Amino acid sequence: MQWLIPGGAALSGSLQVPGDKSISHRALMFNALANGEAQIDGLLEGDDCLATARALQAMGVSITRLGTGQYHVHGVGRHGLAAPTAPLDLGNSGTSMRLFCGILAPQRFASTLVGDRSLSRRPMARVIRPLNAMGAQIAGKANRPPLTVLPTERVLAVRYGMPVASAQVKSAILLAALYADGETQVSEPAPTRDHTERMLAAMGVPIAVDADRHLISLTGPADLQPLSVSVPGDPSSAMFFVVAATLAAPSGVTIRGVGVNPTRIGALEILRHMGARIEIRNRRDVGGEPVADLHVQQAELTAIDVPEALVPLAIDEFPVLFVAAANARGVTRFNAIGELRHKESDRIAVMIRGLRAMGITCEESDDAAVITGGPSRGAEIDAEDDHRIAMAFAVAGLTASQPLILAGTETVATSFPGFVTSCGSLGWTIEEMSK
Ligand code: S3P
């Protein structure tokens, strides 16, 4: 599927974005391991979360769709999963693959985890190493999927200092620690999204967070109580509209019901440093997660040196932050962003290639990018089957002097089904053309 994005649209109005991907995965997985029944509302019905649901169903968990985004999960308890009879296909989803490693590592049955072409290229040593140190037996050729997980009699508590800031790795270790005797301690080099800690605590798991030392402790073995969850709107999906409105919404845009967990909104802070006008309104708490409405008005952006401390808190937003930089006055520098090379695509390389095709001056090195803001032209760009690259270039098309043609957009359904319709609701028309 190709998109044609005509330049020069003006956005206005209000919208809601689909449910948070990270929280949706966790609500399904953790409730599947709980002793009892729960209801999830606002679940993201994107391909990634549906892959998680199917994998759990393949291990005997009953998950029933009650309506749009509304699911009933009948937990089987920590020891209630059944051996899958076929490899578990996790599609494009790194979160599913890494968190399932943590859940499956302590099981007494063997399993195999597979993914699509993009997922099969992604590094898994970061999760295999700590889990195998706990006594698991996980292996993959060159530490990449497909992964085989051998049966384990028991896993051991560990103290582990993570070399990379990764919420997925942290979560995998904490999930395995639910099965280990004693206290597991995980420390992160910098804070990452904390949905696992919040949800496990709400499910009655003894978990403690030392925020100053970026240290999380969990005492196992620990059972989970079911937790009915209302999933907030995904701030990562909202951010495409935050940047779009900053560039092209003379009368403003409101995005309702967005998760504003401080570990997820580094991009808002970066954009504010650049001069964006974003108001956080109507803050409330929904099931242990902070939620608010974002009101965004058009603004002129100025280049900055992006503070490195904000990188893990904005990790999924860099494609659209690059687009903001391409529209800012001056030279924006992004440092310590090497992790972007290990996402659904090499996001530094793919973004720089596309922005150059649009006439933007930019440079990349191993773990950095430098982007000089300026006028852009239309181009034909391949999003390389990376959902966030596709949506970021849709935003870039708003200010280009000619239409942008974007290929490789199908994976947008992994995190934002209905993206094109949502754009249309704000007066921003994207034409979908089958190739
Ligand atoms: C996620 C964590 C992040 C993020 C991904 C979702 C999660 O990855 O990029 O989209 O749900 O834990 P890392 O933790 O590997 O940085």
Give a quick rundown of the structure.
It contains twelve helices and 23 strands.
Q: What does this protein structure show overall?
A:
- It is built from 12 helices and 23 strands.
- Helix content is 29%, strand content 24%.
- The strands form 6 sheets. The protein has a 4-stranded mixed beta sheet with strand order 21-22-1-23. It has a 4-stranded mixed beta sheet with strand order 2-15-17-16.
- The protein has 435 residues and is an alpha+beta fold.
- β21, α11 (387-397) and β22 (404-407) form a beta-alpha-beta unit.
- The termini are close together.
- The structure holds shikimate-3-phosphate.
- Shikimate-3-phosphate binds at residues 22, 95, 166-168, 171, 192-193, 315-316, 339.
Oligomer kind: single chain
Helix content: 25-40%
Overall number of strands = 23
Rg on CA atoms, Å:
21 Å
- What's the number of helices? 12
**Spans where pLDDT lies below 50 across 5 or more residues:** none
Strand order of the largest sheet: 21-22-1-23
**Major pleated sheet:** 4 strands, mixed
Terminus-to-terminus distance: 6 Å
- Strand fraction equals 15-25%
- Overall shape: it is globular
Ligands, ions, cofactors: shikimate-3-phosphate
Instruction: Determine the mean pLDDT.
Output: 97
Structural class: alpha+beta
